Amino acid sequence: MKARIKSPAMSVPGVFEAMSKLGAAAKTAGIPETTHFLIHTRASQINGCSVCVDMHSRELRHAGEPDEKIFTVAAWREAPYFTDAERAALALTEAVTRLADRPDPVPDEVWDEAARHYSEEQLAALVVSIATINAWNRLNVATRQPSGDYVEQLIGTPAR
């Protein structure tokens, strides 16, 4: 696969830095880093972003998550590897990523379940984290950014 153009995040001055700061800000509310990696992987699966699925799956592995958990992110409802808090974050991720798919984009039951596990500050950070990965996905998918060596260079964890 060949990119249509260089990544907008790399070619438009200030975009990479701004997006990175937004992502970093979302990680200041005390949510486990692996939860961010899980929601980034799930949103990226939904959006078909190979760069981000590759990157965040590798981050999960590097953080010590078992392969079984990483391999079943797309089927988290049926897999036994996820905590209730992770499940709530993944459900929120799916709702926020698929806003146009239903009349009530983020149903109260999804929000309320997330609110059982996360404080208001953490909920805000989750929404920012989800919005940020969706923005990255759109930049990458629209311009057909390929995965592979780039991801290895970025996070330093080669595929096995």
Automatic annotation (TrEMBL):
One of its GO terms (molecular function) is peroxiredoxin activity. InterPro entries: AhpD-like, AhpD_core, CMD-like. Residues 13-94 form the Carboxymuconolactone decarboxylase-like domain. Pfam families: CMD (PF02627). It comes from the Bacteria. NCBIfam families: ahpD_dom. PANTHER family: 4-CARBOXYMUCONOLACTONE DECARBOXYLASE FAMILY PROTEIN (AFU_ORTHOLOGUE AFUA_6G11590), BLL7811 PROTEIN. This is Alkyl hydroperoxide reductase AhpD.
